[in-house]
Design a protein that fits this description.
With 200 residues, this protein is mostly helical. It has one domain. It is 76% helix and 0% strand. The protein is built from ten helices and no strands. The longest helix has 25 residues. The model has no long low-confidence stretch (mean pLDDT 91).
């Protein structure tokens, strides 16, 4: 019963649509009807301003962190459940029950998740993100690249810095998180290929 409870709580936390709520309150609009159609910080900032985007980014990250922390509190010795909660929180953000399963792309929630699970790998991926965005001005490309590199950085840390506790479950969580984020960016990938993706 406890593993199921952890997964349900993680999904419900992840599914809180902060970007949608912020834009709805500020402008009365449905953020999913503009821009990329996502509820994440990038789309919110384009529609409702940078402050709204930053608030969305922070809140989306916090819900990912909270989902993992609650899983650690409820199942401190069951790393597979913690990993499952991490992935389900990202899924909740991407497919929120409150919005007909149409949400964001999972990047900020993933940041919150891996801030708790793998902060060193997240920091390295953040540097990759900044480098790609500065070179190309494509936030989507930076997000995709950073997400894909997190499993690699987790492995590098375990091999060359210090052994990572429960490496297998963490690697699987990182790989599944990357797959989800790349899948959520499939529209962006198409626009990048056509040269029609928006730049910052």
């Amino acid at each position: 019963m406890r593993p199921l409870l952890v997964v349900i709580i993680a999904y419900l936390l992840g599914s809180i649509p902060f970007g949608y709520l912020i834009v709805r309150r500020k402008l009365g609009d449905d953020i999913r009807q503009t821009g990329s159609g996502g509820t994440g910080a990038t789309n919110v900032s384009r529609r409702a301003g940078k402050t709204a985007g930053v608030i969305t980014l922070v809140l989306d990250a916090l819900k990912g962190s909270l989902a993992v922390l609650l899983a650690m509190g409820l199942s401190p010795d069951v790393h597979w459940i913690i990993a499952a909660a991490a992935i389900v929180a990202i899924i909740g953000h991407m497919f929120p029950v409150w919005l007909g399963f149409r949400g964001g792309k999972g990047v900020a929630t993933g940041v919150g998740v891996f801030l708790i699970l793998a902060p060193i790998a997240l920091l390295c991926a953040g540097i990759v993100f900044l480098g790609v965005v500065l070179l190309t001005r494509y936030v989507s490309l930076g997000s995709i690249t950073a997400a894909v590199t997190i499993p690699f950085f987790v492995w590098l840390q375990s091999v060359f810095v210090a052994p990572v506790a429960e490496l297998k479950s963490l690697l699987i969580a990182a790989i599944l998180g990357a797959v989800l984020i790349v899948f959520a960016h499939r529209g962006n990938i198409g626009r990048l290929a056509r040269g029609t993706e928006s730049k910052i």
